[in-house]
Write a structure and sequence with these properties.
With about 80 residues, this protein is mainly α. It contains 3 helices and no strands.
């Protein structure tokens, strides 16, 4: 039962993971990553509210996806 449902679980987790990564706000953009821009400390800010929830939810989804991938590998 679990073996047949595992690919669908992985598809759902991957779509959710991609969505949460894309929803996260980028403070610096491309210019800030190469040292440009006037916001030299844009990478060091405190996450609050929904941004913190989204960040933690992304980590949980990534861990669940890794576990489901390992289970898929081991159960075959």
């Amino acid at each position: 039962m679990l073996i047949s449902a595992l690919p669908y679980i992985q598809i759902i987790l991957s779509v959710l993971l991609v969505t949460t990564v894309l929803l996260q706000r980028s403070e610096a953009g491309v210019g800030g990553s190469f040292g440009g821009g006037d916001n030299w400390n844009s990478g060091f800010h405190t996450r609050r509210g929904f941004e913190k929830f989204l960040f933690n939810f992304t980590i949980v989804l990534a861990i669940l996806f890794a576990i489901s991938s390992l289970m898929s590998l081991l159960l075959k």
